[in-house]
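Quick one:
INPUT:
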């Protein structure tokens, strides 16, 4: 039954993940877009904490944790995002529903392997402005697309205390942005269309360590490293002379191809260090610091010069609590209660102002009776950006739901 669910969800995910518009943020115009993937739903519920090993949940950020799997695990997650935008002169709202990841992990003795698909970054914005002048000017900016990752990784248990792991990702995607402008006193307007096809590879490496301090209390720590890599962009640009029709649509009167150079965008190197303490299957609390060399980032086209990038740091605190893991009489005692905090400067600098992002998370792991599977739910409230110098402040409320199916696969039947 679980295998049938896995196949059905995999087909659904493959049909929708590449076409979805995963963000509504104007900040997604820069670099490779808005980095959407922040871990599986159970990890996001703890602010994005990845330090704790888990025998039934896939850890999609540290491949070393794959060696901790005891059962074959299938994970899929999605998010409903509700965002309010505020600047010095205007405000707005947007809603998005996205699929966030699909992955499978398989234990093989001391080895654990995993593979899957992750929509990593997303571009999706629509902005309109109208100047209040004698000859009003209408401008409209829009963009769609993003970067997806297909990954495969493995973790190996060197000792009872130490795991190592590595994964490789193939990144691919397309990005399209449009800038339209016209004067009310002129019959035709102009529209610039930019297209980029992206592809490239990158690697992740991980270590995880755990040791008992007392009979009940355990110490956990982890390190991950992602070396710098590159995305190759095949760029093209066209300029359209357009006419607005009475139906509200546009008609292209003339199109001209513009030569633009193909470019490369560097994916920055990243270090992450985490540590935590707790009692297995009862409670855990930990913290994590991630250092990202975002200063090597750039924009898709060389003529985008109103933004710079800086190195960034992410801080995470979080944990979980289970009242009674083995309770047979009380369902609510077996629920995993999670919470976490996250703060980071995103690495994007506009108008000499660093764009920061802060959020708080509360989540629940709901066990499915009679199985090792569960449904994870996360509620996230946060703020990104600022209204400084007419920039945009985003206040968002996200609801994420993840399905984690765990079972013993590849067992030879004794009876048919």
């Amino acid at each position: 039954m679980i295998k049938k669910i896995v196949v059905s969800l995999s087909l659904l995910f493959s049909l929708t993940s590449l076409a979805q518009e995963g963000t509504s943020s104007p900040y997604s115009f820069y670099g490779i877009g808005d980095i959407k993937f922040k871990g599986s739903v159970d990890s996001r519920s703890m602010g994005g904490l990845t330090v704790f090993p888990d025998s039934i949940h896939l850890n999609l950020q540290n491949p070393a944790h794959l060696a901790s799997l005891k059962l074959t695990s299938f994970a899929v997650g999605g998010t409903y995002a509700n965002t309010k935008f505020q600047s010095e002169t205007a405000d707005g709202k947007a809603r998005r529903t996205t699929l966030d990841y699909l992955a499978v992990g398989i234990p093989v003795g001391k080895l654990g392997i995993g593979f899957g698909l992750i929509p990593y970054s997303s571009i999706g914005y629509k902005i309109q402005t109208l100047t209040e002048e004698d000859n009003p000017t209408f401008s409209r900016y829009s963009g769609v697309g993003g970067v997806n990752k297909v990954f495969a990784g493995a973790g190996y248990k060197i000792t009872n205390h130490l795991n190592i792991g590595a994964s490789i990702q193939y990144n691919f995607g397309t990005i399209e942005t449009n800038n339209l402008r016209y004067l009310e006193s002129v019959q035709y307007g102009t529209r610039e269309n930019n297209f980029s096809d992206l592809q490239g590879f990158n690697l992740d490496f991980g270590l995880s360590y755990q040791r008992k301090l007392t009979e009940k209390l355990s110490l956990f720590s982890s390190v991950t490293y992602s070396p710098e890599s590159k995305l190759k962009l095949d760029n093209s640009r066209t300029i359209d002379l357009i006419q607005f029709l009475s139906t509200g649509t546009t008609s292209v009167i003339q199109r001209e191809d513009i030569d633009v150079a193909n470019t490369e965008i560097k994916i920055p190197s990243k270090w992450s260090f985490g540590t935590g303490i707790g009692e297995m299957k009862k409670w855990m609390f930990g913290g994590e610091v991630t250092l990202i060399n975002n200063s090597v980032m750039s924009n898709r086209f060389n003529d985008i010069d109103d933004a710079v990038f800086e190195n960034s740091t992410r801080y995470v605190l979080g944990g979980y609590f289970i009242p009674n893991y083995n309770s047979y009489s009380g369902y609510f005692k077996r629920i995993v209660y999670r919470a976490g905090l996250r703060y980071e400067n995103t690495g994007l600098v506009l108008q000499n102002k660093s764009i920061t992002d802060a959020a708080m998370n509360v989540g629940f792991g709901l066990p499915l009776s009679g199985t090792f599977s569960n449904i994870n739910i996360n509620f996230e409230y946060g703020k990104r950006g600022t209204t400084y110098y007419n920039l945009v402040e985003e206040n968002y409320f996200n609801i994420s739901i993840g399905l984690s199916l765990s079972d013993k696969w590849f067992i030879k039947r004794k009876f048919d």
